[in-house]
Amino acid sequence: MTRTFKGPQGRVKHAINGLSLRVERGEMVGLLGPNGAGKTSTAKILMTVLLPTSGKAGILGHDVVRDPQTARRVTGVILGGDAGLYARLTAVDNLLLFADLYGIPYREQKPRIRDLLDMVGLLGNERKRVESFSRGMKQRLHIARGLLHDPDVVILDEPSNGIDPVGARELRALIREQVRDGRSVLLTTHYMFEADELCDRVAVMRDGTKIAEGTPDSLKKQTDGQVVLTVTVSGVGEDHVGRLRALPGVRSVGLTEHGGSQTLDVHSGQETDVTAAVLAELRGLSVIQVSKREPTLEDAYVSLISQDRR
Known about the structure:
Strand 7, helix 6 (about 165-180) and strand 8 form a beta-alpha-beta unit. This protein folds into 2 domains: about 5-220, 3-Layer(aba) Sandwich (Rossmann fold), CATH 3.40.50; about 225-295, Alpha-Beta Plaits, CATH 3.30.70. It is built from 11 helices and 14 strands. By secondary structure, it is an alpha/beta fold. The strands form 4 sheets. A 6-stranded mixed sheet has the order 6-7-8-3-9-10, sandwiched between helices. The chain has a 4-stranded antiparallel sheet with strand order 12-13-11-14, covered by helices on one side. Strands 1-2 form a two-stranded antiparallel ribbon. It is globular. Helix 3 crosses helix 4 (about 105-120) and helix 5 packs parallel to helix 6 (about 165-180). It has helices at about 40-45, 70-75, 90-100, 105-120, 135-145, 165-180, 190-200, 215-220, 240-245, 275-280, 295-310, and strands at about 5, 10-15, 30, 60, 60-65, 75-80, 155, 185-190, 200-205, 210-215, 225-235, 250-260, 260-270, 285-295.
């Protein structure tokens, strides 16, 4: 599947470039990538909002171009933020409106809405206007709206973006329930731990192209037996990072700022212990904590994106 558009000076650019991806029944697949990688464009094509320039896309065998109405009927879309909700209506009025749009028989609407509000934890707030809801409550209502017509396929576009940790954990539990119920789920997210926890498979995109696909564990193994030395330190500069990257055995170095301190993630092979050499380079700085760990999905993701960029 390919989706092109015209950029500056009329140049043709690829939002999606030859993407091949399949989600099986009862499976959750994560779509990962930096901003502009093509994740949302892929989701929008499956939602029948965009048309592919070439290739095919289908939902349960229904072509999204030739038979968009059927594709929509079997697909639930769960977005983030305020899009898709009417702020001045109550939660229950929002769901009644969408139940009419989905063509749900009138006698089934109220009991189904009550069950969904109970499932997402909004019973007791159903008569409140959505404009008074927190972001987490809106996300719960998005889930209820997306499941109103009992779809077989669910597309989630960054559903936990901006939600507090407790709300995000509860949201992930709700998402897991959809897979246990036999639904197929496509998840786009920037949160690597979320994809690691939820997804059976993940696909990594960059510049519209899929550069890797596999289970979270298989992608972690692509870090080629790396060990990550994590050092929390204060006063690190780019000159320190440059010298650390030049050390024998060091494959990559990441630096994250945390107010008055920084965290260094130094990647090396299992055959080389670089701890002493790293600490020697940081002599004179305030080293707060040193630890070792196995690579995470985020480490694998950064490695894949960096390799592809090179």
